Fold these 2 entries.
Entry 1:
Amino acid sequence: MAGQGVKEARPEVSANSRMTVAAHALTWIGLYQRRGHEVATSEQIATSVNTNPVVIRRLLADLRKAGLAESRRGAGAGWMLSRDLAAITLLDVHDAIAAGPIFALHRSPPDPECVVGHGIGPAMTAVYDQIERTLRGELARTTLEDILRDVLKAV
Amino acid sequence: MAGQGVKEARPEVSANSRMTVAAHALTWIGLYQRRGHEVATSEQIATSVNTNPVVIRRLLADLRKAGLAESRRGAGAGWMLSRDLAAITLLDVHDAIAAGPIFALHRSPPDPECVVGHGIGPAMTAVYDQIERTLRGELARTTLEDILRDVLKAV
DNA sequence: CGTTGTTGTAACGTTTATGGTTACGACAAG
DNA sequence: CTTGTCGTAACCATAAACGTTACAACAACG
């Protein structure tokens, strides 16, 4: 090869941890409430997640919009679940955090004069749509109750 | 609400178009070869995709590493497929472009002293692994021949 | 009615993936 | 030797998500 560059290996990390953190936070609140507490603070959750409380508040704000969590203000404030862990699926969480599609079409539209450029969009969309449907089906199969059971089993 | 901010609406674009462009490029080469041409240039492909030739060359370099495409240098150089469109699945393309996982765990490890922080990683990994398996199964079901058929049908 | 603890949210800065562009060396056909 | 194309580095731009600081809003409680 020509360059035999030192700087190869295009990274490949990315990927959203929002789903993980959201599931973590809700599960934490659920367990905390089952142990008799009224509300959980973003500070407590952030300690378990190992991040900043503001990150938790921002994420929980999205979950609240979706009707999965509620918050109370003032002194002694905090967060609680809107419904039981068993009634929240990972699909609910996924939709709540407005996770975008896995794949996307071209950034700028391909050449419409070209047969391939003209037809590739719909062709790929058909595949992507089917994959999204399957993904949603998989996510819908698992509830946060399942997750908590798994978590407690690992102790 | 307090702020009722003007700057809400967390964006949600992202998503990889690499898969789309890779499928587009390979399909284009395949069709071009069926029409009697030996090789396709990155310039021609870039015109159809509506991007820069270097982007195409970079992408095809990845596909070549995976054994899906070959290139010829010198004058009259260009790209060709290593095997027929019918023998290339979207899973092959997916693996070739080294697409990362859909979901990720925490950026920095959660609190291991906390029950949830300790067990949430393995619990979510189990779910994510199952989803990846399903995704791969779906991608393996479609070949570039299927894509081309769809493309030509739309004319 | 003030003190206090917590949410709500703006405003930045940082990191990372990807795409776009320019530049130029390597290479092979003719 | 000329010419056309790949191979790749180098750099900039864009965008998403995270991390952090700051502070107003708010409600319980003395």
Note: The two ends of chain A are 52 Å apart (CA to CA).
Entry 2:
Amino acid sequence: MAKVLAQAPARKGPQTAIRIREAALELFSRLGFERANMAQIAAEAGVSQATLHYHFEDKFQLWRAAMLQLRAVIGEEERLLEAAMDSPPEVQLRMAMRLFLQISWRHPALGRIVALEGMAGGERLEWLDAHLIGPRNRRLAELAKAAIDSGALKPFPAEMLIITLQSAAAGVINLAPMMKTSFDVDVSQAPARAAHEQLILDALLGGLLTDPSAMT
Amino acid sequence: MAKVLAQAPARKGPQTAIRIREAALELFSRLGFERANMAQIAAEAGVSQATLHYHFEDKFQLWRAAMLQLRAVIGEEERLLEAAMDSPPEVQLRMAMRLFLQISWRHPALGRIVALEGMAGGERLEWLDAHLIGPRNRRLAELAKAAIDSGALKPFPAEMLIITLQSAAAGVINLAPMMKTSFDVDVSQAPARAAHEQLILDALLGGLLTDPSAMT
DNA sequence: AGTATTTCTGACTTTGTAATCAGAAACTAA
DNA sequence: TTAGTTTCTGATTACAAAGTCAGAAATACT
């Protein structure tokens, strides 16, 4: 008995899809596509699992909807960069690198997802390249090339700077568990953020040695 | 009919466990713990899935057995470093960093696994720290601290150098799919290896600018 | 009011994967 | 040869996770 009784009711408001997207971004960025499961996302959003499939056809489409929320972040970065468009390339490059690092800190989800999917390859990476990170990567490489051509930087393959920057930005966030385990140090807080930014910018653009001539 | 007929026979030789370990390392490093599945590993090793469970109790223990194969790599690194034990700390540090990068290139599995598990945290990371990477990380940090104390390096949090080095080493291997997608460049080959090693060492220890005073 | 539409859900199906197990084949020792 | 041990396997179980669906509840429309 009491079988067909209380079918649970509905209408969580028009915010439902938004809450789902936000919960999805949170979990996808923290756990990655496969480890984040629909049940968790549904619970986090406060809806049933079936509701996820009502608003989004399948897991991949939900993932894309979640990722699209990051477009504003990239857009903001782009806008700030345009302000420096008339500076010499090495100044623009430095600014672009600083922005890259700052945004990685402010929105750890972006760096985590790029690292996660960038390692795996596949259709999600291709989507990210087309809709999120491709233009930014290529703009950075162009800046590096221009700075090299102008003689401000030593010649080196420009893509290597991207990969180093991306690795550094993502690594400091993503490898926080390793640093905690190996050193019992929490590198995810503000002081570490400042130290890391300075290290990367100083190192990649200034040199770490107090006397660069001392060691070839 | 033909039901209890040909039960398939056995004896693949004493190499079986070794082949399984090797196949497991290959797949765990390429795909990570969860995406690599027992069926694939069994197929790669040329045995049935049940044989995996005969030699190794469960997936986690197989993973640990696979990881132990990397101990020789770390051991070799350690031995090479001891040869330079009497040099000044910044020379030792430079050598340690170069070894770190070279070994990451020669054994991509190590860097991939550290990146994969270092992002996720959990019991596998703790095992890695205890049995594989912890001592190396701490030795590097000590070297950096010594070099800073001797005045050869600008002061900075030594752990940040580890995370940057680890990120760079792992990143250039792991983010190869992203570089391929964004730039259609293959960074997993020897020429890229050399360029990257030089960039990291030059940058982190020498400075990238031709004129360091030009840009504060 | 009644009817249609939208939003949501519990229950179900399907699929992929780790783990178990009884027993076959090969090897060893008597 | 025969009895016992080791190595290996197909078949099965157990379980987790994505995706489907009929229908309930709220809202909108007439």
Note: Chain A has eleven helices and no strands.
